[in-house]
Write a structure and sequence with these properties.
Layout lengths: L1 H36 L2 H33 L3 H7 L1 H10 L6 H11 L3 H14 L2 H17 L6 H14 L8 H13 L11 H29 L5 H9 L1
Helix pairs in contact: 1-10, 2-7, 2-10, 4-10, 5-6, 6-10, 7-8, 7-9, 7-10, 8-9
């Protein structure tokens, strides 16, 4: 028992060191980009971040929100308010995996049957990664434009379809950047060298990816529960009202 406690203390000590060094690493990555391309790179990276967050917001509220209301008459804002504490946990850890147990419990409490939640939520965490797919596609387009080889519309559509599939490999925090490099290596090998340009801002975009992934899985669980008639709408309205 003492050995386990000592090992646990060692692991948390190492994690603490990594967390302290992570901001320095991100600063170094940004400094390297600025040193090579000038201050204009910061402006371009800032625009990419803003565009990414706007795209995620449009997807969540316009696409997921409309679909959720049309099928279940549940307001997306009410659902997100219900999951408010989980969003704080996600922002703090930059990972939607940290909120997985709470999402399962809250979806059951909302009125979705336990078998549906037990299948849909874990499956969604592996295959329903909307935020990651948006990130991979936008980052790839940014890299292509920055390297002077912008993609045509057919190439962009093909990239979107490819990155939707590639995003399934990004199941843990930090895997988005590795998946981006791997996806470009398979789809456009000439763009792989440009991945280093966005290393510095990847950490700042991880919260957007995680929140969008989490919201997509929550909405998908309610929709599937409604589809298979395993969703208690009256209970959901009562729960969301409080």
């Amino acid at each position: 028992m003492a050995a386990v406690k000592n090992l646990q203390a060692l692991v948390f000590r190492i994690l603490g060191m990594i967390l302290w060094l992570a901001p320095i690493g991100a600063f170094g990555a940004i400094a390297a980009v600025v040193g090579k391309t000038g201050f204009a790179a910061i402006v371009s990276l800032g625009i990419l971040m803003i565009a990414f967050y706007i795209t995620c917001a449009v997807f969540v509220f316009a696409v997921l929100g409309s679909l959720l209301y049309a099928v279940t008459r549940v307001n997306i804002l009410s659902l997100m308010k219900y999951l408010g504490r989980e969003y704080l946990l996600i922002v703090g850890t930059s990972s939607s995996e940290s909120a997985l147990p709470r999402l399962i419990a809250k979806m059951e409490h909302l009125g979705v049957s336990k078998p549906v939640v037990g299948i849909t939520v874990p499956t969604g965490y592996s295959f329903n990664l909307d935020g990651t797919a948006i990130y991979l596609t936008m980052a790839s387009l940014f890299i292509a434009s920055g390297m002077g080889v912008p993609m045509s519309i057919p190439e962009q559509i093909g990239l979107l379809l490819f990155m939707i599939i590639a995003s399934k490999a990004a199941g843990v925090t930090g895997a988005g950047l590795a998946t981006l490099a791997g996806g470009l290596q398979a789809y456009r090998p000439d763009l792989v060298d440009g991945v280093g340009v966005i290393v510095g801002i990847d950490r700042f975009m991880s919260e957007g990816r995680a929140i969008t992934n989490f919201t997509g899985n929550a909405v998908a669980t309610v929709l599937i529960g409604t589809w298979v008639k395993e969703f208690d709408a009256s209970r959901a309205r009562q729960v969301l009202r409080h």
